[in-house]
């Protein structure tokens, strides 16, 4: 997913601030909570995206929703709303998480399968590729996409292994068309 320049700039500013103040771990955890909340709450997203609700009201609601967060996180959220960038709040939080993980050497891995698979199968898939070192730190995100029909798509950073049935069927179809 492409991240906007706005999200990258706000996330970098927050990272610079938290690094200087020693709050990186706290804010990292809180930004994970923000991403989770924004992903799960369609009503909150609609509220923030509603143009006829003024910034003061949005800040009041945000203060109540995010009152358990640190002062730094609350200030960021208020700043984002005051600047009219509340639609980017989830992206800013995710970009901050990505930047902290990059600093800590954590690889982001996405495994897409057609159905839910067991942990043993996941480990077998990860072992079968040269892209993943199981002894290193990584963050595994599992996605279900029935459209791939079977197999898996493994994405590690900017590299991808597509072993899905849909891709193989498409390749067979192309081969038949060429011959």
TrEMBL record:
Signal peptide: none
A single MF term (Gene Ontology): proton-transporting ATP synthase activity, rotational mechanism
GO-annotated cellular components: plasma membrane; proton-transporting ATP synthase complex
Coiled coil start-end: none
Subcellular location: Cell membrane; Membrane
Keywords: ATP synthesis, Cell membrane, CF(1), Hydrogen ion transport, Ion transport, Membrane, Transport
Keyword Iron: no
Topology class, membrane: Peripheral membrane protein
Family statement drawn from the similarity comment of this UniProt entry: Belongs to the ATPase delta chain family.
Task performed by this protein: This protein is part of the stalk that links CF(0) to CF(1). It either transmits conformational changes from CF(0) to CF(1) or is implicated in proton conduction.
This protein's name: ATP synthase subunit delta
Species, as recorded: Chryseobacterium defluvii
High-level lineage: Bacteria, Pseudomonadati, Bacteroidota, Flavobacteriia, Flavobacteriales
Underlying gene: atpH
């Amino acid at each position: 997913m492409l991240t906007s320049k706005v999200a990258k700039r706000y996330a970098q500013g927050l990272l610079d601030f938290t690094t200087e103040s020693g709050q990186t771990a706290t804010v990292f955890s809180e930004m994970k909570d923000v991403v989770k909340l924004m992903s799960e709450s369609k009503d909150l997203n609609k509220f923030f995206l509603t143009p006829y609700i003024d910034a003061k009201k949005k800040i009041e609601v945000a203060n109540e929703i995010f009152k358990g967060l640190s002062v730094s996180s609350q200030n960021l959220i208020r700043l984002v709303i005051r600047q009219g960038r509340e639609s980017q709040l989830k992206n800013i939080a995710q970009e901050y998480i990505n930047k902290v993980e990059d600093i800590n050497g954590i690889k982001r891995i996405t495994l897409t399968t057609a159905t839910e698979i067991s942990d043993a199968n996941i480990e077998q898939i990860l072992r079968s590729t040269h892209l993943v070192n199981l002894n290193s730190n990584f963050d595994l995100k599992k996605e279900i996409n029935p459209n791939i029909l079977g197999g898996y798509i493994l994405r590690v950073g900017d590299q991808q292994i597509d072993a899905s049935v849909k891709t193989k069927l498409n390749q067979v179809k192309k081969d038949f068309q060429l011959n």
